[in-house]
Backbone:
């Protein structure tokens, strides 16, 4: 790994750790523990965590809330030049929002074999038929994210 790769890996790790803290906040509120942040020019411009139960809104996913917050923060409808960090691979709804908002890069932790739309089940983020594609980087804090999700669902099954 060269110096630039190490620098990028450290940056991805740092921002994913912030998204992970939001996932822990979701867990504390008995929500599916997913957290997301959006970064532009090394600054967090939007953040969110799952609030589906709290808001009685099936669209209140971490990614959607982070996109809304980022757009409101910069006063733009497009998020070109931004990176989204999220602890779980986005579902089709969130991947669609990622494409529509023109986010350049997605970095996610755990894969979602059941509903993942950025490489697992589908790959909407890189679909050439759409008007925008995002670079996808997977596996940053993957084990931590998987552990948090597995412990949440194990607790729910009891």
Residues:
């Amino acid at each position: 790994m060269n110096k630039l790769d190490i620098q990028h890996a450290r940056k991805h790790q740092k921002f994913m750790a912030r998204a992970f803290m939001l996932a822990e906040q979701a867990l504390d509120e008995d929500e599916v523990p997913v957290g997301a942040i959006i970064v532009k020019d090394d600054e967090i411009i939007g953040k969110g965590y799952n609030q589906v139960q709290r808001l009685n809104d099936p669209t209140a996913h971490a990614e959607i809330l982070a996109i809304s917050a980022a757009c409101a923060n910069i006063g733009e409808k497009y998020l070109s030049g931004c990176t989204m960090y999220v602890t779980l691979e986005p579902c089709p709804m969130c991947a669609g929002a990622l494409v529509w908002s023109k986010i350049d890069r997605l970095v996610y932790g755990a894969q979602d074999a059941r509903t993942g739309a950025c490489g697992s089940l589908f790959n909407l983020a890189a679909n050439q038929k759409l008007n925008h594609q995002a670079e996808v980087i997977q596996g940053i804090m993957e084990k931590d994210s998987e552990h948090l999700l597995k412990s949440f669902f194990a607790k729910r099954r009891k």
